[in-house]
Amino acid sequence: MIPLLVTVGEPAGIGPDCILRLFTDDPASLSGCIIAAPATWLNERATAIGLPTTACEHPDLASTPTCDVGLQCWNPLSDSTASGPITLGRPAAATADAVVACIREAAHACISGGAAGMVTGPIEKAILKNSGFAFPGHTEYLAHLANNSDFVMMLASDTLRVALLTTHLAIGDVPSALSTQATLRCLEITARDLQRRFGIASPNIGLCALNPHAGEQGHFGDEESCILAPAAEAARKNGIWVTDPLPADTMFSAPVRNQFDAVVCCYHDQALIPIKALSFGEAVNITLGLPFIRTSVDHGTALNRAGTEKVSYSSLKAAISMARDMRRHPGKADTRQTSI
Amino acid sequence: MIPLLVTVGEPAGIGPDCILRLFTDDPASLSGCIIAAPATWLNERATAIGLPTTACEHPDLASTPTCDVGLQCWNPLSDSTASGPITLGRPAAATADAVVACIREAAHACISGGAAGMVTGPIEKAILKNSGFAFPGHTEYLAHLANNSDFVMMLASDTLRVALLTTHLAIGDVPSALSTQATLRCLEITARDLQRRFGIASPNIGLCALNPHAGEQGHFGDEESCILAPAAEAARKNGIWVTDPLPADTMFSAPVRNQFDAVVCCYHDQALIPIKALSFGEAVNITLGLPFIRTSVDHGTALNRAGTEKVSYSSLKAAISMARDMRRHPGKADTRQTSI
Prior knowledge:
2 copies of one chain form a homodimer.
Chain A: E1 4-7, H1 15-25, E2 33-36, H2 39-49, E3 55-58, E4 71-74, H3 93-112, E5 117-120, H4 125-130, H5 138-145, E6 152-156, E7 161-164, H6 174-177, H7 180-196, E8 204-208, H8 223-237, E9 241-246, H9 248-251, H10 254-257, E10 262-265, H11 268-279, E11 284-288, E12 293-296, H12 314-327
Parallel strand pairs in A: 1-2, 1-5, 2-4, 3-4, 5-12, 7-10, 8-9, 8-10
Antiparallel strand pairs in A: 6-7, 6-11, 11-12
Helix pairs in contact in A: 1-2, 3-5, 7-8
C-alpha cells in the first residue's frame, strides 16, 4: 500500500516531539506512514528528550523499509538543500530551505501517486518568509504546487465539519472579499470532497449568513440576498443540497448542526469558534480541492515547548487518523452529481 | 418578599402559552412571580388550549394575593391603554399600546422598588414599531425608562457568560462601531454586575479580539492594539481583572473559557455562536447596567405555534430561575473596586 507522508514542519519546534512521542506511546497509529524528513532530525531530538526511538531512512518511497521496528523516514533533501544544524526552539534561516523542500517533495510524491496524501506538521511562517517563501501558509503553497487555484479550508471533528469562504482577513475586509462565484465554487468543492473523501453520497450543506440574524431582511447587511443566496440557488441547480444563508448563531446549536454534513462559513472565527468550542484538541485541518489528501495539525510550533514534556500529540494523531479514514473512500464523486 | 414581574410580551404569540404551561407543569417555578398583564390574556388562552389554570388579578403589587392557587396577575393597564381583542397568532395594532404599557409599568415598579426585577416575554417588534414604539427592542426601552444610557447585553448559561460590545449591526459596520471608551464602559458594567448580581467578588473577564488570530500583530486588522488593548489596560488600572484581546477561536475552547466569569465579545455572532453551540435552550438574555434585574427568554413570538402544543417553556423557566438567583445577591459592588 502506498504510504501517507508526515512532514515535520519546523524542526526546531515541537513537530519532531509530537511524532516521536506518538510513535513511542502508540506505534500502530503511525503504521502506513513515512516521515518526510532526514532521519537525523528525529534521532537528534529523540536523544535530546531521552527516547529510545531510532529513525531510519528509506532511500526512496517505493523501496522496502530498511528497518523493521524504527520510525520510517524518507529524506527528500538533495545536497543543495541539506539542512543546517538545529537548535531546540530556535528556528534558523539555514534550515528554511530544507523545511520548504520537505513539504514540496512530499507534495510532488502525492501528485505523482507515490504517496496517498500528506499530514503536515507546524511551520514557523516568519522564518520561511524571511527566506523567500512567498505563501501565507501550507495550504496556498500546496495549491500552487498542484497548479490548483481553487481550494477550501475545512476543519473537521466527530461533531462538526466547517468549510471557510475566507480565511485570514481583518473582519472589516470580509464583506468585500465575498462573491457569489467564489461561494458557489466553495460549495462545489465542499460537496465533491464530502463525496470523494468522506464517502457521503448526497451531502447536506448548511450555509451561514454573514450578518447577525442573517441581516434580518436587509436591516443590517444585504450580503445574504445579494451574494450568498444566489450562490446557494445556483448550487442547488447543479444538484448540490445546500440551505439558503441561515443565522450563524443558531446554525451551531445541536438541533441545527446535526442536520448537516458540513457548514460553509463566511469568515475564520465564524467557523473556528464553534468547532473549537465543541471539539477542542480533536479538530483536524483539511485542505479540500487538492488532487491528494492533506490534513494538518491544528497547533503551531510552540517553540518554548520544543524538547520538553509539555507536548501533546493528540492533534497529530487525529490528523493522521483523519487522513487514513479519507483514503478509505474511492476518491470518486457520486455520479449523481455529474455537473460538479 | 417583593415579587419578580413576568411580562407576557405579544399576547397573540406564545408568551401566554409558555407561562400557562410552565405554571401547569411546575407551579413552584413561578413562586414569588407575578404576571404583569390583564388576567384575561391568560384565562382566554388557558381556555383555548384546554388548561384548567385560573389567573386572578391583584389590585396592586403590594396587596395580599386574591387567590391562593391560581396564577397571580397584576394588570398594569389604565383605561386609556385597555387592550383590544386578541386573535391567536395575529398581533394587532389595537393591543400594541397595551403591550408597551405592561412593559413600562413593570419597569416603573422595578425602579420604584415595588418589584425586584422583571422577566420579559417575546414581543413582536414590527407591530410595535408601526404603532410608534421607537426602540430597537426591550433592552433599549428599559434603559430609556431607567434614564440609563449605559447597558450591556449578556447571555448566560451554566457553561458560559458572554457580554456584547455591539449587538444588531451588519458585520461590516462593527469595526467602526467599536471604541476604547465604550469598551471600557462595557468592561466596567460587566465587572460591576458580576459582583452585585452574580456575587462574584473578583470577576475574571476575557476580552475577545475582533480579528482572527487577534489580528496577528496587525497583519489583518489593528483594532486590537488601537481600540481594545487600551480599554483593557485602562480597566486594569481601575482594578478590573481583564485580559488583553485574545483570539476568539480559542477563547471558547473549554480550557480557556473555564478561566473566565464572563467573556466580552466584539459582535453579536462572536458571542451567540459559542453560547448557543454549548448551551442551546438554556441561555438566558440578561441586561446589565440597569438599576434592576432584567432577564428575558431567548426566543421570539413564534406566532405559528401560539395556542398549539409545540411550545417549550424551557427558556422562560431558565430566565425566571436566573432572575431568582440574581436577586439572592446583595446588589452591592465589592468595595475593593470603588472606582467602578
